[in-house]
Each structure stands twice: as structure tokens, then as C-alpha cells.
Sequence to fold (215 residues):
Amino acid sequence: MSAPDTRELLRRLDGAYGAMHWWPADSVFEVVVGAVLTQNTRWENVERALANLREADHLDPERILSLPEPELAALIRPSGYFNVKARRLVSLVRFIQRSGGLEMLMHWDTPRLRTALLGVHGIGPETADDILLYAFGRPVFVVDAYTRRLFARLGWFPERAAYEELRLHVEGEVGADAGALNQLHALIVEHGKRHCRSRPMCTGCTLAEICAFGR
Fold:
């Protein structure tokens, strides 16, 4: 394994793709909902599910909780695993409401908020960190399948490395900079779609010089 250099990775990807302006949403609550809907599916499917909620005028905490779960599941059907996600979404919205709403949660420190999110049914580390980074602007790094694949091909970490090991390493190198961590994660996703696919497209890859797999 070669020594990881996350800042060099950020520099190269930023030079190749520029500012990503991710996560696309009109409100903090929409980010929270999207974080649940994006579990095990493509973003295009999430957008369709969010559009259904928006068109039905149910992209709102109170309105989501007012819906019977089968009706909520029908609205978010495009996101896949819709019955499971409906239960998870209801659990998350109930947690938010019991905690005084998103405005109140904004005042919680990051460790407390992360621990609380991880205690909600169906919210694992990746979803919790999506919410922390993109909804609350906290300096945490989201480790997803694109990250694991890229770091393994760079020769930095085994693909099955522990989530916390990868997250803490990146946060340690990049620092407590939510903007940089946001940009890095978005860049890794973009690079994963363009080049570092399950079947890699190494031609023209901006990381070729530092990639063990590419060499």
C-alpha cells in the first residue's frame, strides 16, 4: 500500500472537474429526505421520488408523518426498497420532531448529533454523515462505494477497510473544513462515474500518475 495523500487527490480532482456544488436541494429537510432515499440506488431515482413528494405537497415533516406508510411508500417507489425506506424516513422525521426540529438540531455539537442519528432506525454511518455534512454543514467525510473503490485502486486502503478508519483518515488530512470535505466527496463520486467505474476507464484519468491500479 502506498502512503495516502488526500490533499493531492483533492487538488487533482478539483483541477479536472472544478466546483461540484453538491448536494442539490432546495431546503435542509430535502437533503435529509434525500439521504435516506439515496441508500442503495442511483441519484436519478432519488430525484424522481423527491419530485413525487414535492408534487403531492408532502415534502414537509408534518405532512410526511400524516401519511399512512403505504401511501408514503408509493410516493417514494422510484427510489427502490420503498417499503423499507418509508419506515426509515418516518423514524428519522419522528426523531427530528421529538428533538425540536431541524433548527434545534443545528445547535447540537457534531458528536452528539452523529450519535443520535446513528440511533435512528435504518440510519447507518454513511447516511448519518450525508446528513451531517450536507444538511448541517459539519466537517465530516462520507465514505461510500466510490470512495472505497478509488482508495483501493490508488493502493491506499483495502476495499473492505473499516468505515471509521477511512473517515477519520480523510478528516485528519483535510482538516475541519466542511467545504473541502463536501467538495472532495462530490469529486470522488464524479470521478467514479466518469473513470473509476466497476470496469475502469483509465484513459485520460487525472489520477493515472498516482494510481497503483493504473500503473
